[in-house]
């Protein structure tokens, strides 16, 4: 069975444990990169990552962009958001539907 995880700073991700997600409180780039690789190899289908954490490991995330699994989804953090998550969502919707219906 596939699993879901969330990665980011403690304040931003702690609440996700109540939803049954595996929570990883990590903010160091090297550790995040290794964690994503480990999760991908262990049946995690979806990895949610806060925007600030994703900004630290953009090269690692890019490697999985063309992979079927895991899907890496950027989510806003308590602070330090870049807007990358919303831009990625608009791009995905436009690619799937043919136009950006979110605007």
UniProtKB/TrEMBL annotation:
It comes from the Bacteria. Gene3D superfamilies: ATPase, V1 complex, subunit F. The keyword Nucleotidyltransferase does not apply. One of its GO terms (molecular function) is proton-transporting ATPase activity, rotational mechanism. The keyword DNA damage does not apply. Pfam families: ATP-synt_F. Keywords: Ion transport, Transport. This is V/A-type H+-transporting ATPase subunit F. Belongs to the V-ATPase F subunit family. It comes from Ruminococcus flavefaciens.
